[in-house]
Amino acid sequence: MKIDFTQFDSLFSVMEYFTTDQICKQAIAQSRWSDGDVVCPYCGSHHCHLCKDGRYLCKHCNHKFNVTVGTIFENTKISLRKWFIAMYLISSHKKGIASHQLARDIKVTQKTAWFILHKVRTLYGQTVNELSGEVECDEAYIGGREKNKHESKKTEGTQGRSTKTKTPVFGMIERGGKLVAKKVKNTKGNTLSPIIRQIVKPGSRIFTDEFIGYHSLYDSEYTHAIVHHNAKEFVVGDAYTNSIEGFWGQLKRSIFGIYHFVSAKYLQRYVDEAVFRYNTRDDKESVRFMEMFGRSLNVVRYDKVKKVA
Ligand SMILES: [Zn+2]
Question: How far is the CA of 55 from the centre of ligand 1 (A)?
Answer without folding.
Answer: 13
